[in-house]
Amino acid sequence: xxxxxxxxxxxxxxxxxxxxxxxxxxxxxxxxxxxxxxxxxxxxxxxxxxxxxxxxxxxxxxxxxxxxxxxxxxxxxxxxxxxxxxxxxxxxxxxxxxxxxxxxxxxxxxxxxxxxxxxxxxxxxxxxxxxxxxxxxxxxxxxxxxxxxxxxxxxxxxxxxxxxxxxxxxxxxxxxxxxxxxxxxxxxxxxxxxxxxxxxxxxxxxxxxxxxxxxxxxxxxxxxxxxxxxxxxxxxxxxxxxxxxxxx
Length: 248
What we know:
The structure is a single chain. This protein is α+β, with helices and mostly antiparallel strands. The chain folds into 3 domains: about 1-65; about 80-85 and about 145-225, 2-Layer Sandwich (D-amino Acid Aminotransferase, Chain A, domain 1), CATH 3.30.470; about 90-140, no CATH class. Helix content is about 30%, strand content about 30%. The chain has 7 helices and 11 strands. The chain has helices at about 15-25, 35-40, 55-65, 95-100, 130, 175-190, 230-245, and strands at about 1-5, 30-35, 50-55, 90, 105-110, 120, 140, 145-155, 160-170, 195-205, 210-220. It has a 4-stranded antiparallel β-sheet, with helices on one face. α1 (about 15-25) packs across α7 (about 230-245).
């Protein structure tokens, strides 16, 4: 069995690729690289893979070759609503563009994987991703909020294994009791056991600071920040790959 890792042609390994390559080297596992074009064209023998690591598009293509479908995103699970502290609503891209043209300032994120990165949009800002979206493409919207710091929380088999600050002031740390309660809520709602959650310290209009959910992420569709080591990251990705291919 072989680990397949996506890499850019004639380019050095990225951070995530280095972590997986280091694990394979330490454990003396067979590992090969592939390009997105090779995966899209069906040139990679995915059936022989113990793990595939790559972009959303490459993982979707790999799973399709194995006759599995990649899960749809669920960025805001209902059971985590108490920790949102903002009103998140669904709207199609045409409606979002109309609201922005009328003067609204909105946080906007596509409901589909990576179609539009979450951002605050207004009629004075440039947002090409939103401009190019089909009119019926669905988005999540909310009022803009102030984040003091943001963290990625890696959960492996219902245990928090790493917390990494990726934006803002690291002196403002998450309330870990909230994180434990969120993991319990997901487990109680039959969520799969390996995933990433993005959390932040939100400053409410009153000035109060709260630990709030930024969004949920699936383990196969995210990268590694400083704070998760090579062994944790491999185990994290491998566990989810085995679940997606129904081996775990």
